[in-house]
Every structure is written in C-alpha cells, then in structure tokens.
Amino acid sequence: xxxxxxxxxxxxxxxxxxxxxxxxxxxxxxxxxxxxxxxxxxxxxxxxxxxxxxxxxxxxxxxxxxxxxxxxxxxxxxxxxxxxxxxxxxxxxxxxxxxxxxxxxxxxxxxxxxxxxxxxxxxxxxxxxxxxxxxxxxxxxxxxxxxxxxxxxxxxxxxxxxxxxxxxxxxxxxxxxxxxxxxxxxxxxxxxxxxxxxxxxxxxxxxxxxxxxxxxxxxxxxxxxxxxxxxxxxxxxxxxxxxxxxxxxxxxxxxxxxxxxxxxxxxxxxxxxxxxxxxxxxxxxxxxxxxxxxxxxxxxxxxxxxxxxxxxxxxxxxxxxxxxxxxxxxxxxxxxxxxxxxxxxxxxxxxxxxxxxxxxxxxxxxxxxxxxxxxxxxxxxxxxxxxxxxxxxxxxxxxxxxxxxxxxxxxxx
Length: 413
Description:
The protein has 413 residues and is an alpha/beta fold. Helix content is 28%, strand content 21%. The strands form 2 sheets. A 9-stranded mixed beta sheet has the order 1-16-15-2-3-4-5-6-7. A 7-stranded mixed beta sheet has the order 8-9-10-11-12-13-14.
C-alpha cells in the first residue's frame, strides 16, 4: 500500500524548483517547459521509437506561426490538462487543439482557462470554428464563451459551431447550453454590432444522441468524427474519434473505464484518456474522505491503474493521459501505477505539449509562446465581411457626455 505525504505549498515549490534546475542544466532543454513534466519512459524519443530518424525532422520547440503543416500531417496541442480546481498558470482545464494538413482545425473540449493557451498559439481564427464538447462540466466547457467572442474579435467571420451530446432531459443537453450562452451574452453580442462581422457573432449547436456507439457526428472534407458514450456523473457524456488520411485521433472525455472506449479506440494512432488521481492521492491532495475519494476516482473517473489497463487493451501508437494536477509527487505515483499494467508508449500530458503525427512517426514537442502576445493578423475576408449598423444608446445615456472632452471626428471608413 502506498503512503502519500501531504502535499504542501512548500514541498511543491521546492520540488518544482528542482525540476527547473534540471531543465536549465540540460544542454537540450534550456528552460522550464511542458516536457519537464513528461512521465518517465515517455520522452519524445520514446514516442518515436518506430521511426527515430523521422523525429528529427522538426525542432523540439514549436513557435507560433513559424511552420507549415505537411499535407499528410496531424498536429495536436494540449491546451488544458488539469482540473476544475485549482486552475493554475501551468495547467488549465480540459481542451485539445487539432490541426490537419488539409487546413481544418478542431477543438475538443474548451475548459476554464484553456482559451489563454489557444490564443497563445495565434491561430487563424477564421478556421477555428468547431468545438466538440465531451460533456457540460465547466472544466470542459467553461471557455466556450471566451473562444466564441474572443475568436470573433480575432478574425472569425462565421459562426462558432458547438457539437455535443443531448442529455437525458432537454435542459441537460448541448442545445440548451448553447441557448443559455446566447441569452447570457445577448448584451455583449448586440453591443458589438457594426464593429465586427455579423455572422461571426453566431453560435450554433449540433446536438446528437449520446447513446449511439460510433455514430457519425461530423463528416466533411474527408474528416470523419464519431462519438460513443462515456460513464460520468449523468447520462450525456461522450468521447470522440477523428479519422482523416489514414490517421486516427481519439479523445476520451471524463469516464469510468468503459467497453465503448476500448472497442472504438483499438489500434488508433493518438489516444487520449483521463488518468485521474488514485483514491489515496485524491484524499491526500484535496482532502476527500475515503468513500468520496474512491467514488470520484474509480466510479466517476478513471484512476491510473484503470488508464493503464485500458491502454494495454487499446494498444495505441501513443497513449496520452491527462486530467490531474502534476505536482511531482502525483506524477511519480501516477506513472508507477500505470507502468504496473501498461508498458507501451506513454506520456502524461502537460499544457502546451504538442505532437506532429504522420503515418511514420509521432514527434513530441513543446509550444514556446510569449506571456503577452499580439492578436493574429486578420484576413481581407474578415475586414470586408458584412456588418450591420453600429450599436446605439438611449438619449438619456448619451445626454451624460462630459463637455470637457471632444472626441476626434469619425473617419468615413
């Protein structure tokens, strides 16, 4: 039986400081980055064992807007790998960015805080117009609003499409969630009239039956995305599989271990599944009583041993765990428990890890992004897209203008 030491701020800071020192001392890793938290036996070279030579085609660091993706390539970024609490600078809540060589972009989940990491990538927001949500907990959908409005401000001139499961009752489904967002942000959207493209303020729900196993929820541009049920909290949680150009990406939403995930993921290239706290780890880190710790860890989520057993069945080219706070004690315990039952390619993901995936290799890298970034450039289509009349205010409010300030004349355009 493992004995967990209590995790305190002091111990955590000392341990993280040691990791920083290790990162600085290594010749090939000059600063602390996502890869400093990669699980043992899960380095980029381990992930590319079948084609080690191909792993050197690109540098280990990825800088925003500096590379063109190959026509046959898939690019994945971990935007959020953490928990609903605490949300830290190092780890936001669940979100994954997928870009394909055909130009398509997809978000899988959009949890609280993750928009910060998406904006750090400085993507072409005109193409970031599809979000696939696994379920409606805030740590999986809490930044849909930020991507909706922020993406509109940053270059998207069409609606944001939100794909997600129905619920067991109408008010528990994705359509109701989207309708609620539109009502909550009605003032925001109307207040931007005239300054932004009309269509970019749209938010469209695509709700589907969560019970369907392998049901097609998206099929365009040679990209097929299917869904299958998950076991988490209430009816209405799902996982997804994306297939394109002979490559497969699987995103597991929160779930207890389930047969559908194993059936739908077998032999896939890049397979993400939660690797939650063990029960004793959950008790030590968040102070849960024993019954609650076991229930949350093993009946609502998947603990490390369950994650390992799933991956031993699935046998992916790369198994990717997420959904924990990666303080050093937790990461070490998690990895040991996984390795007791699974010996294949593995990484426990941290925010801003990224991967280039082809049929020959999977290269793990890290995003290097500035703390403060400029918005990405916008297209001519964005600048010329239809805009309605500018928002207006009542005579009462306009009558409150201060006469001590005169604004400059408005240009014609």
